[in-house]
Amino acid sequence: MRPRRRDDFAIAIICALVFEADAVEALFDETYDRLGKHYGKERGDANTYVNGRIGKHDVVLCYMPGMGKGSAAGVASSLLISYPGVRLALVVGICGGAPSPPKYQEIYLGDVIISDSTHWAGQIERSGLFSMTFARKKPAVNLKTRRNTISTAFNKQEPDAVIREPMIFFSRPAIFISIIARLLLMDAAPVLEDHEIRGREASEPYPVSIYIGPVASADTVMKSGQHRDEIASTEKVLGFEMEGAGVWDHVPCIIIKGVCDYADSHKNKVWQEYAAATGASVAKTFLEYWRPADHRDASGNYHVIIPFAKNPYFVGRQQEIQMIEDSITMPDGPRKLAITGLGGVGKTQIALEIAYCMRHRDPECSIFWIPCTSFEAVEQAFVTIAQVLGLREVQPTKVKECLRAHFSQSNKKWILIFDNADDKDMWMEIQGSSTAPRLKNIIPQSDNGRVLFTSRNRQLALKLAPSNVVSIPHVDQKAGKEILMNLLICKDLLRDDYETNTLLEMLSCLPLAISQAAAYINRNDISLATYMSLLGEQEGASIELLSEEFDDDGRYEASQHAVAATWPISFVQIQQRDKIASDFLSFMACISHREIPESILPHTESAKARVEALGLLKACSFVSAQVENSMKYGTFTSWVGTTADRLSTVFPDEDHCNRQTWRNYLPHALYLADSAEFQERQHDYDNFLARIGRCLRRDGRYAEAGSVFRNVLSTQERFCGPEHADTLASIRNLGLCLERQGNYEEAEAIHRRALLGSEKVLGPEHPHTLIRINDFGSILAHQSKYKEVETMHRRSLSGSEKVFGPEHPRTLNSMAILASMLFDQGRFVEAEELAVQLLGARKRMPGPEHPWTLTSMRNLACTWRKLGRTSDASILLKDCVDLSNKALGSHHADTAQLFNILLSWETNSKPASTDASTPPLAHTHESEMMPDSKLGGRKWRRPMNFLFQRRR
Questions:
Q1: pTM surpassing 0.90?
Q2: Domain Nucleoside phosphorylase spans what residues (predicted)?
């Protein structure tokens, strides 16, 4: 997720020359903004910025107007004005190197130097000598322990290839120049006279080397080999540059620069662009592999995830805020606190104010905000937090337990804010199935952490934070008037104190109701008296329509339904003014009211009308927190069908390329599916629910997917019958979920039922039947029933060849499954025969670089190694690694796995046939190839469809 504001950037990269910055920008994984078009900058800041992402780090790239310490200091000073959150700067580019520094091996052109300290080397005197006024800058971080990790990681990436693509123009100079340089210039021997050069022995080509040590920084370019060697000897420096000391005066920095010359009189520009590229590549590698010791990333000493900006109009509540702040900061204070009060009283705004106060009060305290509007919203928030913390390999089903362990064991300060913890069932009862944990049980426990809840349900708040509940009353008249004053455009409307106080009394001084009233008054340019007359004219039925939400279990104080009295006014007016806006609001009332994608809203013929309708809802504050769950009652019940029709139309299938779309839509689809109104008519939306279940399964949420499929299956058995094709598909989907959960006995029974039903209803050679044969074989393999497994897979292969054809993707996948089974049983000769045939077919279709083809290459290499053909196996696997690096990228999990296998083979001296480093064969699971609804035999074949299929 890209940062919302400049304050969220914690890492800066500073370059003195344009081609240095170009080299860095070429290695961005994602570019957010160029030249301040989106993020802008502060007035008076003359710097030029490019914002983007390198690995998991958000960075701001800053171009310097010129070289030298003075220019660098000015750039760093302006940088901190526009980007005050920057905690670390990387000064990246080119430098001069000391060819034979003390205690180090020889440095060559293109090698990279990383500073662990900077020596300010003064200025060049008129005589051309340095004035020896050294002042050492302390290191920003300890890099010594990371030297081997960074060097190894960088060289594994084959930097020449990295530089060649995508930075073609940053190529290594021609080989004859390199040889001459190694013989003569690269030594940069001490200059005895202006034209005297001392040579050294040539060496064979080798990878770029990385050196970590002191760097000398000066105002002027070093051009004397003699003085270079003197400084290198006395100060133990590795290189010479001009910007680091100036940056270091303002922000901790690390210098990462490629060696382009030897800081002597033989300077030239031949190696500058290549050195800039090696420096940029090492900087990227540094960021991708650098992990602080306390597991925080380089974005600073804390993580902050707060979904809303600080409210500039927040007033009052100082007593409550001070009480909660004191409790949070007390060393022996309560670990859990809760804010409770009526809906609309401002609990979320108070929590928001506390979050920003704590951020200012203790910058090293991490703050994470978790919206609790639904179980799915909590799941998504936990996944985001895990990604920010660098826990990227955690399975979705394990993320809550992993985060609980992480925070419980952390020795750093943190605050978790659970906003809108209103649903008692979500916290105190098991959700979905017996495998889902209670949210109350996943709250971490640590002396360094605090947990803050906001809840309308006072009873739940008392269970979550016993004896530490802060009740929030309505604001008083003074604070209410101040809120109204801040929000109204025309301040003269408040001249009549009696009229103002009367309106505040009618609104019960609820901040939410005051905000809504002010938005309506501003939009329609009416007086307070007119607004109050509208309040009095609303019929009782309309009041009742929007009053249910405030009958919470935690309400202990009688109150007029002020918000319910406010909303009908705006809604009636919206109905009269804009039917599209009214329809949008009715639609949103049927789904989760947070993070609603615009694309999910009903289709409109006119883009202009759509924009204006949403603008009207924004003006009335109905598309933010005011869209409450209570709107699903009364009039909005009729909108459940309309909403279901729309969602069933736009909700995608489980194809990998749709993953982000379905993740955006899932909370709303699940919210709708959970409503009583939808469940009364869910038999009309079985296909929609099945898509939801398959997407949950692809995301690894097997328990939730299984619950959906059980629900769909129950409905289909009742309305369609137990042997209908859709019923059999749901049986299969349920079996796949049970298999992934390790429930093999029940999964076997379910798959057997699906297979027998398909054979009976569809026939033994129907595409669905053949797939279910493989399903059944897979579940038998989990239970080591190999004789039955082989029978099933050979039957599936024979049937697939007959129905689909010998080179159809499903036929080839059946072949791969059979080969894998033979390999597991040690029948390597038979497995080889199938693997050779399979690889040849997949090279033809879908092509030599497709992930399926790469899997087939891997499998054949593993089989050859088991047969003792180690040389052939290694050559084939090397080709596979190269193709995977080209097709998938060097950081893809499959590429990394292939590289690790190859590395283990090259370093393992055991006989190939007994080598445990050879992994089992892999294949594409049937559920990952194509949904049942898209299957077919010869007459349905669409070979082009499979060109773009990807394994999950």
A1: no
A2: 11-272
